[in-house]
Amino acid sequence: MLLNALSQGTMTRVSVIGCGNMGGALIRGLRSVDGYHVTAIDLDPAALVAVESFAEETTDDASAAREADIVVIAVKPSIVESVLADLDLRADQTLVTFAAGVSRGFVAARTDASVVRVMPNLAAETGNMAAAVTEEGLTDEVRDLLGAVGEYAEVDESLMDIATAVNGSGPAFAFYLIDAMKTAGIDGGLEPEQAERLAAQTFKGAAETVLRDDRTVDELIDAVCSPKGTTIEGMKALRESDADDGVVEAVVAAERRSRELAEAFTDE
Ligand SMILES: NC(=O)C1=CN([C@@H]2O[C@H](COP(=O)(O)OP(=O)(O)OC[C@H]3O[C@@H](n4cnc5c(N)ncnc54)[C@H](O)[C@@H]3O)[C@@H](O)[C@H]2O)C=CC1
Ligand SMILES: O=C(O)[C@@H]1CCC=N1
Q1: Domain identity same for 85 and 196
Q2: What does the pLDDT profile of the chain (268 residues) look like in tens digits?
Q3: How far is the CA of 74 from the centre of ligand 1 (A)?
Q4: What is the CATH number of the domain that holds 224?
Q5: 28, 237, 239, 268 — which has fewest CB within 10 A?
Q6: Is the CB of 169 under 6 A from ligand 2?
Q7: Is residue 218 domain-resident?
Q8: What EC number(s) would the UniProt record show (predicted)?
């Protein structure tokens, strides 16, 4: 059946080069959707073992990427150039680069494939990825791929540094905030497992509400705050704290680092 789908062109062949945290998350996420034939490529045998039950093929041979419709590069930024030097892609292939700070032009200058730059995040694994993608080089095939594992925003490449901070690094900031809520729950007497479940599910539910509900965030906060109730007291404490500043500082620091990284990847 797989062979039929491949020969009829209803299956998109995706090669993922670099199957660590991010490449592995994409591979795991694609396993839950139909229509993708995934080849996992990595030099580290342990990385291939970790994804072998989620991919159709695993190999340490990057030339396997010649068979793909879409080639995803998910190696560390410093390795992108050497990976591209060893790849010989065709003009009818699409190369998706995940590397932070590496410009689309830097990659495009080193391959015949058509290039699109994406800033993904780890939630690809559960189909909840938030990704930013450059308008330049974007095809419906890539839109479908990103849509298969989450939501995406099409942005001008000049916005990639801020996107890297907000949605690329963002999961780490959210994990940190969930942990703070969990710790407060434990301090109040909940078991660690209960506190983690309640805190994480609360963030998940709140995020889902923001995405689906037409009300503004301020209106949603109001909906939780009963007059003379509990939330209003908590919100007073939160508004008087430095919480907003801390989040802004985290995003600004990550954005700044993305710009610094970019300076190392220029052909000028
Ligand atoms: N980790 C994350 O949450 C995110 C990462 N990214 C980007 O994704 C890229 C990968 O990051 P991570 O997955 O965190 O790194 P990682 O270190 O977890 O994974 C990189 C993988 O590349 C493999 N690799 C190294 N050289 C290779 C080669 N020549 N050929 C094939 N495979 C090779 C390594 O063995 C490793 O398994 C980076 O460019 C990063 O900026 C983007 C958004 C989020
Ligand atoms: O920390 C990093 O550099 C990568 C890019 C965004 C998330 N992780």
Answers
A1: no
A2: 555 666 666 799 999 999 999 999 999 999 999 999 999 999 999 999 999 999 999 999 999 999 999 999 999 999 999 999 999 999 999 999 999 999 999 999 999 999 999 999 999 999 999 999 999 999 999 999 999 999 999 999 999 999 999 999 999 999 999 999 999 999 999 999 999 999 999 999 999 999 999 999 999 999 999 999 999 999 999 999 999 999 999 999 999 999 999 998 877 6
A3: 5
A4: 1.10.3730.10
A5: 268
A6: yes
A7: yes
A8: 1.5.1.2
Q: What total number of domains does the chain contain?
A: 2
CB of 168 closer than 6 angstroms to any ligand 2 atom:
yes
Is the CB of 164 within 6 Å of ligand 2? yes
| Residues 33, 87 within the same domain | yes
Three-state secondary structure string covering 143-189: HHHHHHCEEEEEECHHHHHHHHHHHHCHHHHHHHHHHHHHHHHHHCC
Say if 264 falls within a structural domain.
Answer: no
Q: Supply the ipTM of this predicted assembly.
A: 0.99
Paired with 75 in beta bridges are none
Residue 49 labeled ligand binder: no
CATH code of the domain covering residue 99 = 3.40.50.720
Q: Which amino acid is at 153?
A: A
Ligand showing the shortest atom-to-Cα distance for residue 25: 1
Strands 114-119 and 94-97: parallel
Of 107, 75, 113, 74, nearest to 91 by C-alpha is: 113
Residue ranges around ligand 1 (CB below 6 Å): 17-23, 41-44, 47, 62, 74-77, 79, 83, 98-100, 119-122, 168
Residue 47 domain boundaries: 2-160
Last residue of a domain, one of 160, 179, 194: 160
| Nearest-angstrom CA–CA distance, 19 and 137 | 23
Q: Any known ligand binding at 18?
A: yes
Q: How far is CA 254 from the centre of its chain?
A: 15
